[in-house]
Each structure stands twice: as C-alpha cells, then as structure tokens.
## 1
Amino acid sequence: MQWTEFGVFAGLFLFVSVLGFAATRWRRAESMQHLDEWGLGGRKFGSWITWFLVGGDLYTAYTFVAVPALVFGAGAMGFFALPYTVVLYPLVLLPLLRMWSVSRVHGYVTPADYVRGRYGSSLLATLIAVTGIVATMPYIALQLAGLEAVLRTMGLNAGGLAGHAPLFVAFVVLALYTYQSGLRAPALIAFVKDLLIYAVIIVAVFYLPTQLGGWGSIIDESAAELSDPDSGGSGSILLGEHNQLQYATLALGSALSLFLYPHSLTGILASSGRGVIRRNMVALPAYSFLLGMLALLGYAALAAGVEPIVNGATGEPDSNTIVPVLFDRMFSDWFAGLAYAAIGIGALVPAAIMSIAAANLWTRNIYKEHLRPGATPAQEAKQAKLASLVVKFGAVLSIVFIDPQFSIDMQLIGGVIVLQTLPAVAIALYTRWLHRWALVAGWAVGMAWGLWRLYLIPKDPATGEGHFGGSAMPLSDFGLFGWQPLSGIETQIYVGAVALLLNLLVAVVLTPLVRRFGAAEGTDTTVEADYHATGAPDRARPEETGEAPGEVASR
C-alpha cells in the first residue's frame, strides 16, 4: 500500500466531494425541483464555466488513461484521438448553435426532445433516447475503469469483489453529491480537475525526457519495443498499409459522434448564449494540445520499461495502469499522489455529467412520454435524480463483470451506437427532407448491422475467441447475402463508419417510397427563426405560455 500517494489522493478526493455537496449553494436557484436547474444548471453558465464544464466532460479517463494505454500497446494508432479533436470543433460549431437556439426556444432538455418536436414522432424520439442511454453506459464504465486503475496502482488490488470495494465507495460519494447538486457539482469540480491535469501533464512532459534520454531516445526505444516479437510487440510508431483507412475513419467517425452523445449536448445546452458557444469552440482546442502530450506518455512508459499491474480480480494485466505506474516509478510519492488525484477527479467529473444526461433522457423521453405524461416539473426532477443513481450503479456492475483491459473499446463501441442518431438529430437541424419512418428504418439497419459486426470481432485475435473485442473490421468481411466483393482485402475500417453509411442509404432510398404511399409526415413544431434565436432569459416553454414557437425568442 502506497500510503503517501493514497493520503494525497484521499485528501483531494475529499476536497472535491465537499465542493460537490456545496455546489447546490453555488449560483443558487429558487428551486432545484426542475430539470432546467438540476439537469442543466439553470441554462446560465458563462464562457469560463462552460469551457471547464465541456472540457471536463469531453476530456475524460478515456483521454488520461485509455489513449496512452493504446499508444503503449499499438503505437501510432493511438494518436487517432488527436486529429479527431482538431477537426471536431469546426465541424460542430454551426450545428451546435442551431441546436442551442431551438432548444432554448422550446425548452428542450435532450436531443430526443428536439427529435420529438421536429418530426412529431414518439417512436423516433424514444429510439434516440434509448440509443443515447445505451451508448453512454460504456462511456461511464470507462471513467470508473480509469478510477479503479489509479486505486489499483496505490495498492488497492484485492481479488474478487473485495478488489472493487474502493470503487463502490467512490461511486456512493459521486452518486450522493450528483443527486443533491445536479449539474452544478461537476461544473464546480471541473475547475479543480483541469488545473490539476494541466499542472501534472506539463511537469511530466518536461521532466520525463530528462530522465529517459530525451524525446528522440524515447521514440526510438518505443519503435524497437513495439516491433519486437520476442517481447510481444505488435504495433508500430507508423501506420501500416492495413490500418490507415481505419485511422482516418475512426478519427472522422469519432468527431461526428462526440457531440451526439447526450452528455456533450448537456454542457452546450447549459450555456447562457450563442456567444458562449462560439468562444468555447475557439478555446476548447487547447485541450487537444493537452491530449497530444498525454498520448506521448504511452511512449514514455515503453521507454521506461513499465509493466501493467495484474488485476487482482481477474488475474489479467490491466493496461489502464500504464500511466499511473509510470508516475509511481518516475516521480516522488507526493507528486504521484497529486497525479492520481487528477486522473481520479478527471474520471468523476464526466461520469457525473454522463449520468445526469442519461437520467434526463429517461425522464423526459421515456418516463414522461410513455409512463406519466402529466408529470410535473418536480416529479421530473425527482425521477431524474433516481435514474442517475441507477445509471451509475449499472456502470459499476459493468466494471465488475467486464475486463477493463478493453476499456478504450467501451468508448469506441459506444461511438458506433450513437453515430446512428446522426441523421435524425444533426441532419434534421438543416433539413426535414428525410421522412420519419425512413429514419426509423435507417436507424434499425445501421444499429443491427453495427452491433452484429462488433459482436463478431474477437477479443483475442490470435485464437478468435470472445466477442466485442474492438471496433475495426477488414474490408474482406464486408458482404451481402454471401456476396463479398472485397474478398482478400485486409485493409481495416471503423465499423461505425460503415454502419452510418448503411443507415443513410436506407433513409435516403426509403424516403420517397414512404411518401409515395402516403405515410404521415408528422407535425414540425419548429420554425426557421427558432434556429437563430438568442433565447429567452427564463425557462418558459411555448406550450406552457400559449405563445407561438418563435415568440419566446423575440422576448
């Protein structure tokens, strides 16, 4: 047991937990018994708060633990996360402005709310809500896997359920302050998390090369280690001929999917204005610089000869421990404890936001839509609080029963799932040409094909055993009813990209057909002016005030 490291970690963890409980008094609302207050922080966060909140939401344990672990194991492929965050913000700026405006006018809390209003389809909105919840669950599990990797490195690595006991304690604390303070808790804690992360990483990228012979030596040693079959190496610091397409489609698919996640939109909808979003899309790429430095730690771990800790619960090496073990080996105990706290808090902040976003979807688009249509705002808020507890508990169970060695695949598989909402959510912000029934059919085809292909990917490529072992497939596996036009081509491609193309193809082909048979279009409650509105200062919805959709914005 590393007591000095654990003491520093526990002290900072206790500090942010107190902040989480105190957040209910920060920017105090008249009442927290409303989703706008509990789930969106009153929709009044300014530029600085939004920057820390969205940054804390998007740059997660996936960034701090899983990406360096992928670089450690595969080399260049792990850097796909860097170009995707570079192209991300220019791609999503204008769609997010339109989503923010129409949501402010109509009081939408979730993307499924928007789809319900845009297409007048309860079925399509429910599918979008269920997809968002399912895609978010593995993402939350990834955060908890990162937290558990830190705990394991400090010595909390017992076998069986006892090995997960510290994680359950962290889960209870997270659940309680999220239940009480809602989105205000992670928004306030994000300040501490980001300051810690920047301090730790800047020190690491300057100090580690002085101990390991410089970055040139680090990369040379990493190249030799990754290509050495005697040490189990199977990667390279350069992309191979078979994974260049995978790299490109994975980067683009990840960029398209990130703001389709409900937790990403939650941070945007909580902001106070369109100007806040514009400023953040300019400033958030600063995190991409941080991401690049974090990825390099995977090479530093290779050069330092780091070995992953064996998971006491599963008996398998836990690659998520690569960065924590590197800090333990190369830094003093107190600084390693500081780094562990940064990683642990970096996991808790997005986990809280994700659970809130999933709870909003359940409450607005399943509970109120189908189970209790007459629910009051107070009943909605109570239901969301309870749902957030269930979501966190489900994520903890997935960590207990899933090998965290594959934690990065949790996010990549979630990306395949959430990408299937792009036609109904993102494209609908610009055109309503696609018919709602064609969108349902496209979603079904893309989802079914994508999950089937993910299921067929083995966890152990050498033996072909297991399922859901990754998110890439060779082009030679692509076929239709036994016809395989690309047979023999071993070039890899991201499953999500192919599933999305099938989704769009079905939606485009079926749209004129279902219109020809006279299928009802559904009522669009939005108008063009809604997508450019600056929004209302209160949370009144047009359906509550009796105003036309554009009147709230003009106020």
## 2
Amino acid sequence: MTSPENDDGKSIRLLQRFGELLYVFDVKAHGKWFVLATAIGIVAGLGAIAFQVLTQVVAHYALSNVAGFPILEPHGEHAFLEHGDKDLSPILLVVVCIVGGLASGAIVYSLAPEAEGHGTDAAIDAFHNKGGAVRSRVPFVKTIASAITIGTGGSGGREGPIAQIGSGFGSYLASRLKLSTRDRRIMLAAGMGAGVGAIFRAPLAGALFAAEILYSEAEFEADVIVPAAMASIVAYMVYCLSLPADIRYRPLFGNELHYRLTSPLELLPYGVMAIVLVIAAAIYIKTFYGMHRIFKKLPGPPHVRPALGAFLTALTGLGLWLLFGKNPHALAVMATGYGTLQETLLDAADIGMPLLLAIAALKILTTSFTIGSGGSGGVFGPSMVIGGSLGAAVGLAFHDVWPDVVTRPEPFALVGMAGFFAGAANAPISTIIMVSEMTGDYSLLLPTTYCSTICFVLCRRWKLYQKQVPSRLQSPAHRGDFIVDLLEGIKVKEVYRRDLTLIHIPEGLPLEMIVHRVAETHQHYYPVENSEGRMIGIFSADDVRKYLYDDAIWKLAIARDIMVSNYLYVTPQDDLNTALERFTQLNIDELPVLDDGKSRRLLGMLRRKETIGFYNRRLLEQKSLKRELT
C-alpha cells in the first residue's frame, strides 16, 4: 500500500514529465496552449460549480432557513435547493450577518490574508508584479470565505472569487509544469477569464475581460486573448452541464429581453445618463476605498472587521426594508441583488424610481461595508445592480417627461449596467460584451457602446481596480518589452552616418605605416579591405598600441596580422535591437555597416552613442504623441 507522500510525489513527477513533453512541441504548431487552456477551463468550470453550490447552501441554511431572508434569483439561475417562505426576522438576520463576517474574517486572515477584498485586484497584481505566482491555498480560501460572505447577506459579487479560483489554478499548473514566467502569467489570466466566462455564462466576455482588465487605458494583453478564449469556452461548457436542460444555455438574466433603439433622439437621454453614471462611479470608488482606509485604521485584530462590516450592511438593508414597507426588493442592497435587477430589467415601474435610487445609493454603501472591511467578494455584481438601478431611474424620469422618445425605461437599466462598470473598472469592451451575453440582448449595442465609451473617457481619473497599470509600457511584467519593440521598429539605415570620412586600411599595409596613420587621426576602428574592396577584418587603435614599443616587428607585420577577421557587423536592413545585441556581445563602441553579407562592401560605421541617442529621441516622440492623443 502506497503512502500519501509517495502518491503526491508520483503526481508531481507526472506533472513535471508532462511539462517536459510540452516543451518539445512548438506553441503554435502543436497546440500546447490548446491542451493547457482545456485543463484550465475544466478546473475553472468545476470551480464555478463548486462555488455556486457552496454559496447557495450557505444562503439556504443561514439566510433563508434561519433568518427568513427572501432569496430572489435571476431567471437563468438554477437553485440547487428549494428555499422556504419563512417571514424575515430582523434580529436573526443581523446575527447571521455578524456570524458570517466573523467566520469569513477568521478563515481569510488566518490562512491567506491576500484573499481579502474583491479578489480581481490580487490576480491583476500577481500578473504585473509577481510573475503570475499565486499561493495554491488562495483559491480554496477565497472560495469558502466568499461563499460565506455572500451567502450570509454580504454585498458582494462572484467575479472576484471565481477569478482567483481560475487564476490560482492556472498559476499552480504552470509552476508544477515548470513553465516560463511569461507562460505562467498567461495561464493566470486565462484562468481568470475562464472563471468569469463560466459563472456569468459569458465565454467571449470572459476572454476579453482577462485581457482588458489588466490595464486602465484602452489596451489589451494580446498574448492572453486566445488561451483565455479557449479556457473560457471549456469552462462555460463544463459549468452549463451542471444546469437543468431547460436553462442550460440560457443567459443569466433569461432570454425575455428584446429591446430596440426607437429613435436617434434617444441617444440624448443616454448621454445624460452617462454623465449621471460617471458621477455615481466616482462616488462609488471614493466611498469604497475611503471605507477601506477607515476599517484599516480601526484597533483590534483584522479578523473581526468583516463582522463589523456585515453588521452595518444588515442595519442598512433592514432600514431600507422598513422604510419601503417591507418590500423584498429593498433587500437588494444585501447579497447579490440579482433577483431585483432581473425585475428591474423586466418592469422598472413596478419597483419605482424612489426605491431604485435608494438601492443604487445604499448598494454603494453596503458594498463598501462588506468588501472594504475585509470581507471576501467581488465588485462586478454590485456594480451591475448599482448601474442597472440608476439607469432604470433615469429611464423612468425621461419616460415621464419625453414619452414619445423614451417609450420604455428598461433598456436604460441594461445600458446603465454596462456604462457604470465600464467607467468604474476602465474596461469598456469586455463589459459591453458581458452585459449583452448575460442578458441575451445584442440589439442595444449602439447605445451601450455610446454610453460605455462616454463613461470610460470621463472616468479616467478614478479606477476601481487599484492594481491596474496604465499600459504595457508601465507594467513590470513587460519591463524591457517596449524598448525591444521600439528598437525593432528602427532600421540601421536610419541611424548610421554616411558622411563620415573613414580611413580604409589595405590588407598588405605594413604595421609601421599603420602606426603613423593611427597617430595622425582620431579614428578608433579601422576596417581592413582586400584588393577587391571587400572588408575582410577590422582592428582598433588599442590593438595597434600593443606594438608601439616593439619597433622590431613594425617592418615584419602587416594589417592582416593584427586585424580581427571574425568581426561583427550589421547591414542597413538590420534593426537596432540586433545592433545593440552585437554591441554588447563584445562590448564594442562601433560596428561596420556592410551592404550585405556576401559582397561585404563597407558603407559606414554605426556608433553605440548615436544609436542610444536616436532611440531616446524616438522615445520622446512616442511619449509626446501619446500625450497629444490623450
């Protein structure tokens, strides 16, 4: 009988052999990324199932059975357990929230403190600053803690936890296979996209999310898109297999939403809504991180702070519930709030403008309490509820004053979902696609793109994900890449000087004459040519100095005897990256520029200082152009 240690050792050795096998195959030609992305997708899909079931189990036995909390689900969601119809007990709800906060805080801060908060930032930070490395325990801790936080009424979303689950496995697999740091970063991002694509049933958006969310400017991590797309598709299929056949491929918010842009004039109200969303996004981010700083300064162990945040969240939810006559939709400021968002997308007037505005405002507060205190959960879900509620409220207002143009307020809820998160998270493209996939409605792409673009442009001063970097240029993960890219775009023919007068040395010239020529000029490198004008070697002034005090050899040696015949050179078509590699290869300051490698006719010399100077000028031009464009 084998011991657990031996079994674990065998598993590790098998993974290592698998990694060695992958190195034999070329990435593009033999489908290495197809194999890796499939493995990541399977685990991310299973992780999404486990997280969803665990969250529902906690919510069923804690919120529903104990506190009588009405759990409202979107139409495309599958309830693995049937919830009861017990009346809500305010006292028990507060108790459940506090106990959930205590349990979540104890698990996170005892086992993996980096699992606190919304999770996506931790994955972004690992990509940029940690070579894609994530501790293997983080996904498990994040899964349990987030399920407890959301399942006991905390205002949080699911994208943060599932992003860490997928990215954590991608990082773990890459480390076990001993892949490169670059591969590990790609696998981490692919895992993040796979998890998001699965749990929101938005495979295309998951792939784009993984590539776009890393940067705050309009930039994608191109290397990530294809592996993330493969992994996201597989994860989506695995997750859908856990659902009943009648809703297996249904969008998260059902397929009843079919709205249209009724008039070009409707873009005016959408533009006004975009301004409102920008203001709300700025308040959201300021409140979120302001509350985070306040909780950080509180005395005592961090383990109990999530309980305080949960307590404040419960009081806020109960206060709104009582204020609106025990309306169950008022409790959308707690838990995910997706059920109320579903109703908003179908009939915003049934909820009413006052409650929609209250939900949008207080969801900002409860999310800040829950996540800012150290609770575990995502910020995408709350952003959808805030943006959807606020958008619906704006739609209702315009429907009242301009009914001929704004015939229905519900499309404003859908567009508001996308616009709010696009601005807050600096991720317009993936958000537009994700909202469309979640609602199954692509007919509003024009106003959605219009509104999201306005929000993205006007929200550049704030960002919900603090670990985002502006672009690849500022990312530590790509330190040096931009330099290489820029150098590869510059040819030697743009840099070397053709007007320099160079002394060419015939191969048979005696050393005595060479010494005098060197003494009379400031040239440092001397090309040696044969009778056909072909460059056959080169020597430097330093090479000649070795013979200054040995005049006996002056009449015996010739240029061929002191030259270096195996010399480095460049051609006009070579790029500056190639030139710099050759400069550093032998630590030389000049390189001969030849017309080609066959005729070897000398055209001039390329100097290291001139090369670096040209690069610096081009870099300043690029930065100046970028500032003008922004």
## 3
Amino acid sequence: MQKIFSGERLAEQLERLRRQGKRIVFTNGCFDLLHVGHVSTLAQAKTFGDILVVGINTDASVKRLKGDKRPILDQASRLTLLAALEVVDYVTTFEEDTPLALIRRLQPHILVKGGDWRPEAIVGKEVVEHAGGRVVAVRHQAGFSTTNLIERILVAYQE
C-alpha cells in the first residue's frame, strides 16, 4: 500500500475512507531523528481511530522553526521512515510552519499531539472541534526529544 501522498491526493483518499465510516486521526511534527517518544505518540494516536495520518514539516519549514543546522534527516528520509511504521497509514508534508492549512484540507475526526502540548495550544483545535471532532494530548515520553538526542550524540563523540 502506498502511504506517502501529497496533501491534495490524501484529502481525496481520506474522503473515500470517511464515506466507508473510517475514523481519521491526524498528528504532526518534524520527526527529525525518529525516536521512542515519536513512536509512543504515534502508537497512542492510532488507538483513537481507524486511520492514522502523519503530517511532517518540509525541510524548509523545519529549518525556519529549528535553525540552519536542522533538519538532520531530509524530508524524503523522514517520510520513508514514518511510512515504514506499521501504525502509520498515511504520511504527507506541509510547507507552512504549522499544519493548520493541512488540517483544514484533511478534516480529521481526531487531532492528537504529545502531552507536552497544552490542548488549548494545539494548532487546528478550533477546526477539528468546529466539525464535531476532538483534540487529544496523549501521554508524553519524558526525556525523549530530537534536540536531547543530538546533544547526547555530540557529547558522546566530542574529542
């Protein structure tokens, strides 16, 4: 099954699935250096519906948000890694700094973010709730972040 879609093609695919009664769950992030915290969030997100869609920031978006040294992995690599996970049904990118336009286009039933996000601060909350959906902040895996992982690598390999 093809898992990597453009936003436009994915919206069409999700509409077909929605007509079949499938519940669509959406989450997003940079997913630069995939780690246990990411996998935990994705696994928890999948429990809220039938189809898990992951939106990732493009390379340009990550660079604007995280600085010139990021992303570590390019978007093609990040898409491939996420698509390889059994729990993930579809992956797409968004160019903007937030996934708001993508959430409007995809119209998920459930919007999920890690517990390090306050529900009222989750981008797209109003869109999803206005359509009758809900927003969930799942349990956060403390101590896992890409920034922490990069710092640990730098310390471990410092000469």
## 4
Amino acid sequence: MKLNLTSATAALKAVTGRLAHFPSARCVCLLLLPLLFSQAHALLRENSSQNVLHRPAVTPSANTGELQLRLRALDAAKATDDPAAIANASRSVAALALRQFAELQQASGKEAHAAETYRRSLDFEDVPGAHLDLALAYLEAGHTDKALSQATDVLVAEPQNAQAWRVQGQVWMAKGNYGQAVTSLRKSATLQGSPETTRLLRIALAAAGMKANAQPKEDSGVMMGFSRKTPPAEWQARERRLAKIVGSALNDQGAAEARQQQFSLALAHFHEAEQWAASTPGLMRNIGMAASRTGDYAEAVRALRPVVAADREDNVARSMLGMALFATGSYDEAARTLAPFGDSLLKQPELMYAWAESLVKLNRYPEAAALLEKLERQPLTTSTQMLLAQAWSEMGNYPRTVAVCRRVLEADPKLAQAHYLAGLALIHEDRPTEAAAEFRAELQQDASDAEAEYHLAFVLFQLSQEPEAMRLLHDVLARNPDHPDANYELGKALLNAGKTAEAIPYLEAASRLKPGLDAVHYQLQSAYRTVGRKTDAEREANIYRAMKAKSRNISLPAPRQEQGAPPQSQ
C-alpha cells in the first residue's frame, strides 16, 4: 500500500510550523543597544591588539568586565526580537566565554582540552588574540608546528602585531631554533617593548651562541613564560559559571537560527549547549522542537518526554511529543499523550488523526472510529481526508473507505491514490467490476503505477478476463521483476492454464520473495508434483501444512487486512 505511515508522517510535519515556538529572551531597554554594542566592539579591538600572552603564574584572566558587557548586549539584542541580532550577540558571548574557559583549562595543565576549546571559540569569533591563545596552548601541549602555524597566520594578517612576533619567538625557542627566535623577539621588542620580551630575547641570544644540540640552563617552561599551580577552588566555580554562560549563549543562538528556519544548524547548537549545560532553561524543549522539524523524531521524543513530565500544561510540547511518538511507532504512548486534549484537537486535524490512527494500530477500533467520525465532520484538506480513508480501511470498514474516497474525488477528480484506495476497499467488498473501474481510473492518471496495474490484473482474474490480466502482470514484472504478488498470481494463472513449466519459475520467485505466504507453497507443491519432482513437492507440502497448523494455533485480533494486499486465494 502506498499510503502508509510515511505518508501520514509527512502530512503531520506540516503542523510543526505552527508549533515551533522558542522561548523568548530577557528584555533590556532598546535604547541601550547601540551603546552596548559600541562598547563591546571597542573592547574587542583592544583585546585583539593587546592580548596578554605571558602568564607568569598562568593565572586565568580575571577580566570579566568584557564578558558582562557582551551579556548585556545579548540581553539588549533579545529585546529587539531580531533573530539576526540575537545570533550575532550570542556568538560573541559564546566566543569570549569559551576563551576564558580555555584559560582555566590551560592553567590547570589541560593543554589539549584548552586547545580544542580555543579552536571552538574561533568558530564563533575569529580574532588574532584567540589565534595567539591557541598558539600558546599548542606550545604548552608540545605541538610546536601547530603553534608556529597559528602565530605565523596572525603575522601574515597583521605584520605589526608585537604579541604575535613574541609568540613566534617562543615557538622557535621551543623548537631549538634560537637564531629565528632572536629575529622574532627583536621585532616584537621594536614594535612594543616589554620586560618579558626583553627577558626572552636575552635567553634566546645566550642560547644562540651554544651548540645546536645544547639547551639553555633555564627551565624551558619558565623560559617560555609558563608555570604551573594547583587550580584553586574558585577556578572550579568559575568553570561552572562559564559553562552555564556558554550553554545559554548556544541555546540563544539555536533559538535565533530556528526562527530563521535553519533547523539543522539550530539543533546542532542546541546539542552543543546540552554538552555544556544540560539544565539551561528551555533547552530540552528547543531540542525537541528542532528535532521534530528535522525529522529526527526519536530525538524529539528523548528531549520532550521530560519537558511534558515537568509541565503537563505545556500543550505545545505535548502536541509535538505526541506526533513524535506516533512517527516512531510508539502508538500506546502517543495515544496517552494526545488523549488529554480531547475534542480540542478537532481544531488541529493532523493531531486528531495521529491520535485516532494510534488507536487503530492498537486495535482499539471503537475508540478510533468515534474520533474519526468527529473528525469527518470538520472542514479537512484532501490529504487529511485520504488519511481518514486509509484509517477506515485498516479497520475493515470498507464502505466508509469508499465513501470518503469518492467524496474527495468530487472535490479533486485527479487526486492521486484516491481511486487506488477505493479500488482496494471494493476488492474486499467483493465488487470486482467497480474495483476494476477504480484501478483503470488511477492508471489513466499514472500509467506507470505498478500497484494499480497489479491490482487491476487481480480483479480481472476474478472477472475471468485472464488474457488482459496476464498481459498486465507481465508488464508489472518487466518493470519490477521482484514484485512478489505479481509473480505469485502469474505463476498460479499459468499453472491453472496447464503451463506448469512456465509457472514454476514465477512461483519459485514468489516463494523466495514472500516466503511467509502459505498459498505460494501450496501452488508450488502442486506444480512440482505435476512435473514429477516428488522430493521438492513433498518439501513444499510440508511447509504448507506447518504454516497452516501454526496459523490455527494463533489467537488473532479482530480481522485486519494488510495494507495494499488483496486476499490471496490458493
């Protein structure tokens, strides 16, 4: 059957556009926005040109003023309700918070982690100072080539950057190339003298006169400006505060991106925010909604379950969770999640359908039928009406299925699949002549529809129009040799016509493609017996008998035909 769960899910996705509301932000007077941004940019320029690279005691930066200024600028951007402004301001906050977090990692001796954090900060704000921070982190971690590359890249862009020359000199010293170190450090001292640059230059000059494999007497760490100390307790507290800031900023950025319909990018930033601070207010809700919009329904379920559990009055989250559960086949939970809405879902037909169809999947037909009857009385799109027709078909209410299909066709005579679904229902109603007309009408709209062609052949056999039916089946198999039902019906028809040798390959293909169909084993044993293949015939007969015995011992729910498959005869 072509109108399946995938089709239903696709129809449901439309409603998410009406539900994807992301938390609004804190408000700050709009008049402050230009001033805050100008101050932030001024500090940024200052930081880029005067980044302090030497850390005698590797003490993390105590400069929280700039970060607070950026946070206020983010609040002001939120007050404008401008997604682009919010995204830019949140990136600015995340970048600086990441750099400050990396400083703490570096000071604690976690150079590799610090380097990765610095690298991530550059994705949000590419400034020379961050590159030089990354160079020092690489240097401390022993990755001198990477450190040299970072420092050199800054110098290519800013040849007059004294700090970049000094970092390059430190890297050359670590690599044992003191002549190059002297050149770089002299350039730094010329551009901007400092006691630390002078100290490093003196060490490099002394080392340059030694043998190539000699090392300066001073400890290399001290020589390059590094030292270690045990992180005080306040550093850990600051790490926690910075992690929360990063998580919150990434959440704000993702929310802004989601409002700009950039759901995949938003979801990536929400997930990153979760790694930093999973308890960020509104984060799990945002993850769930963005995941729904990207079709990741399993992730939407993971995120939205705790949201709905914590706030049972959050109807938007409940709606999204119900749809995600339906899309992932969790029908019982989907029904329980959507049930509290009651008749209010009549205003959202896609959700009402998801509730009703979940009940159908659970074989709770009376409850499902009651919902569908209410829904039918509402003004519905043709797509939703087709979903209702399919639900009636699944429950075995074929007259209702035909009625809905014909009502839809009155509104849109060329609606795809309406004739097809009506034809399937008419087969079950034992009305082959009407079913044939429906399938012919479907093929007039799409002559390449193999399923409509197969089912037309099926009813033509019932109408004793074997030549046309066999021609149609040959056509289906020419385009799709692995169509199991077409192989079976053609093999059975050939067998009935006395063309056993021709029938066997088709029946064998059907047995291979659909081994759970007991009728194919029955026909195959008969064909084998006719041509004298007794061993093969007995094997197929045993399979058939075992399958029939097993089916007699199974307690079945109310009858429900597999979608798209007509009853098979032996």
